[in-house]
Structure formats: C-alpha cells, structure tokens
Design a protein that fits this description.
This protein is mainly alpha-helical and 262 residues long. It has one domain. Helices cover 82% and strands 0% of the residues. The chain contains ten helices and no strands. α4 crosses α9, α6 packs antiparallel against α9 and α8 packs antiparallel against α9. The radius of gyration is 19 Å and the shape is globular.
Length: 262
C-alpha cells in the first residue's frame, strides 16, 4: 500500500510540473498580447514564448528539487566525479551512440508504420519553426534541463524512496515516453529514459543525465540541421551507434563501480 501511495504521489508531482509549464506559457502569451496588442501569435513567436516559460520553470523546478527531492546523498557527490575528461568521453559515447542507433532504427520502421510517422514528422518539424539559434538553445540546453528536473529529479527521485530501482526506472521512462505525445517518439523516449534513469541512479546527480540528454539532443539536432544522415548508410550508423552505446554503458558502469568501491 505504501508503494502505491508513493507512486501516486510521484505521478501527481510530475503532472503538476507539466501543468506548471503550460500555465507559465499561458501567462507569457497573455503578457505578450497585453503589451503588444497583437492577438495572433505566430508559431515563431509562440516558440520564443515557450522558451521563456521553460526558463522560468527551470528555476522553479530546481528550487523544488533542492528543497523537497534531494535526500539520502543525492547531489552530494563531488563535481570531479561527474565531469572529467574520462567521464565526458563516456557521456559522448552514450549520447552519440544512442542518437545514431535509435534514429537509424526508425529508418527501417518508417515503411511499416507510415501513419504513425506522419504525426512523428509533424512533431519534429514543429521544433524547427523558430530561428536556428533559439531552436538550438532550447533543444540542446533548456529541454534536457527541464525534462531531467521533472522526470528524473522530481518523479524518479520521489519514487526511489519507496520503490525499487527497476520499477521506479520503468515508471519514469514510461512517463517520459508519454510526455512526447506521439507513439514513435514515445517508444524511443522510453528507451532513452531507461538509460538516463540508470545514469542518475549511478551518479546520484542530475548533472550527469542532463549532459547525456543534451548530447543526444545536440547530435540529433546536428544530424537534422546539416542533413548528415545522407552520407552514412543506415546499417553502418546502427552498427557504429550500437557499438558506441554499449561501449559507453560498459565504461560508465565500470567507472561508477570504481568510484563507489564496488
């Protein structure tokens, strides 16, 4: 019964976080309309207002995380154990490998799931309606920070005070998948969520999954923006990406085992 209550509390907390982001966007939109007198908000302006709302939300969620979620040694690790030349190399392996592997798997799934990919393509296109710099800042920096605070920081961290790691990790990854609002993104977001949850559990700091999340998004942004995918055969990208991902996870586990003295 206690576990059910903790799961319910965690889900309510993350739902409240989603509502807060939406509410902040509504406020920024209303303020913009009030100040400018413009009733129609273009997609470009809407994107910018969402960026502002997310920046405000990050501040609020960070204070929430620090006050109510940080317990039991979380965020008590030294910075050098999170960021070093070695760990950054491992993060790059996991992030780039994850992006290459999962994005190219989609190439083979596309002919089989044409209807689902229509919604997926619309979601991806909506990310690029604003100026490239603004999109890059949001996709590579702001989105990873706010999503990690909500999913791994608030939800997962709460679940871990009454639920085992496997169950907590599956729940937060499932919510992360649902958060993306389409089946294709939801499937690979679930898989990425499992990896990010594992990283947070082992490192005991949100900074680690934020960095890996940023690398995943950043490498995806570059592939999309520069159209790099046309130069690499899908099968080769899957092999390279899978190798980097598995190698990165292995080295990450080995490195964290060493730090924890296992």
């Amino acid at each position: 019964m206690k576990q059910v209550l903790i799961i319910a509390q965690g889900l309510l907390m993350v739902f409240a976080a989603f509502v807060i982001v939406t509410f902040l966007y509504m406020i920024t939109s209303s303020v913009f309309t009030l100040i400018t007198g413009i009733s129609y908000i273009s997609p470009d302006i809407s994107y910018c207002l969402m960026v502002i709302a997310v920046m405000i939300a990050i501040i609020f969620f960070y204070l929430w995380y620090r006050k109510y979620a940080v317990k039991g040694g979380v965020e008590q690790v030294e910075l050098k154990d999170i960021i070093s030349v070695k760990t950054m190399g491992i993060y790059l392996m996991m992030g780039i490998g994850c992006q290459l592997f999962m994005s190219r798997i989609l190439v083979y799934l596309r002919p089989l799931l044409k209807t689902l990919f229509i919604h997926y393509d619309e979601a991806i296109s909506s990310l690029f309606v604003a100026d490239t710099i603004i999109v890059a800042v949001y996709v590579v920096i702001l989105a990873p920070v706010v999503e990690e605070l909500m999913l791994r920081g608030i939800l997962f961290n709460r679940l871990r005070y009454g639920v085992s790691f496997p169950i907590a990790n599956i729940i937060q990854a499932a919510v992360f998948g649902l958060y993306h609002w389409n089946i294709i993104q939801g499937i690979y977001a679930f898989a990425i969520g499992l990896i990010l949850g594992y990283i947070y559990e082992r490192k005991r700091s949100l900074l680690a999954p934020i960095i890996v999340h940023g690398i995943i998004n950043g490498s995806g942004f570059l592939i999309q923006w520069l159209n790099i995918g046309q130069y690499i055969p899908s099968w080769l990208a899957i092999v390279i990406g899978g190798g980097l991902l598995l190698g990165g996870i292995y080295l990450f586990k080995k490195n964290t085992d060493f730090i924890s003295g296992v």
